[in-house]
């Protein structure tokens, strides 16, 4: 039997955060969080906890990111009757994204992190349309957007984030904390 020290990061059961794209937003993609949690348990993930009603789930599981995303997308796609996009991050990746946020801690609800499946294109800001005072920066697999006038009235369109999903800083901080707590609890067991 492999010991935790000998197992690679893809085989080690660790806390992950799944971000489901476009659920419970503006009346589309209805997915009760109880169903999301049940789907995660059915594919073998443990210690499943959802956060808010917007497709955020923290859990422990094994496998590569690609394998885990494929399993949850297939499960949810069958349940919802349409393709579903899932982005996956670890506590460390969320912490890193928060650290790279160039817009600081002020107005946490007005700064979004768009999580992408691949590296963000360096021209994400340049290709945006409908921009007024919004600030855009990209780094790693994330695009950061600060909406100083609020999100509701913004007409900003960023082609680079079409395949991603966004969460505000408050939500990302909470998900990172939940995943870190789950990781630290599993190490102490």
Walk me through what this model shows.
The protein has four helices and eight strands; from the N terminus they run E-H-E-E-H-E-H-E-E-E-E-H. With 189 residues, the chain is of the alpha+beta class. The chain has two domains: 14-90, Alpha-Beta Plaits (2-Layer Sandwich), CATH 3.30.70.1280; 94-171, no CATH class. The strands form two sheets. The protein has a four-stranded antiparallel sheet, with helices on both faces. Strands 6-7-5-8 form a four-stranded antiparallel sheet. Helix 3 runs antiparallel to helix 4. The two termini are 18 Å apart.
Major sheet, described briefly?
A: 4 strands, antiparallel
Low-pLDDT residue spans: 1-7
Number of strands: 8
Helix vs. strand class = alpha+beta
The level of helicity is: 25-40%
Q: What's the tally of helices?
A: 4
Per-chain topology:
Blueprint: E1 14-20, H1 33-42, E2 46-51, E3 56-61, H2 65-80, E4 86-90, H3 91-100, E5 111-115, E6 135-139, E7 142-146, E8 165-168, H4 169-188
Question: What is the compact description of this entry?
Answer:
Helices cover 30% and strands 23% of the residues. The protein is built from four helices and eight strands; from the N terminus they run βαββαβαββββα.
Defining traits:
8 strands, four-stranded antiparallel sheet, Alpha-Beta Plaits, alpha+beta, 2 domains, 189 residues
């Amino acid at each position: 039997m492999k010991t935790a020290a000998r197992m690679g990061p893809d085989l080690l059961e660790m806390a992950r955060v799944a971000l489901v794209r476009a659920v419970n937003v503006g009346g589309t993609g209805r997915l009760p969080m109880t169903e999301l949690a049940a789907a995660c348990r059915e594919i073998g993930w443990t210690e499943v906890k959802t956060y808010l009603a917007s497709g955020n789930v923290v859990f422990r599981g094994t496998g590569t990111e690609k394998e885990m995303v494929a399993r949850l997308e297939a499960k949810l796609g069958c349940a919802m009757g349409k393709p579903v996009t899932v982005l996956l991050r670890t506590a460390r990746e969320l912490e890193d994204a928060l650290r790279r946020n160039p817009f600081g801690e002020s107005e946490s609800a007005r700064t979004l992190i768009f999580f992408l499946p691949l590296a963000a294109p360096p021209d994400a800001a340049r290709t945006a349309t409908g921009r007024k005072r919004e600030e855009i920066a990209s780094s790693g697999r994330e695009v950061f957007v600060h909406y100083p006038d609020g999100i509701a009235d913004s007409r900003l369109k960023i082609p680079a984030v079409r395949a991603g999903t966004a969460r505000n800083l408050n939500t990302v901080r909470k998900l990172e904390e939940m995943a870190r707590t789950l990781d630290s609890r599993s190490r102490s067991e």
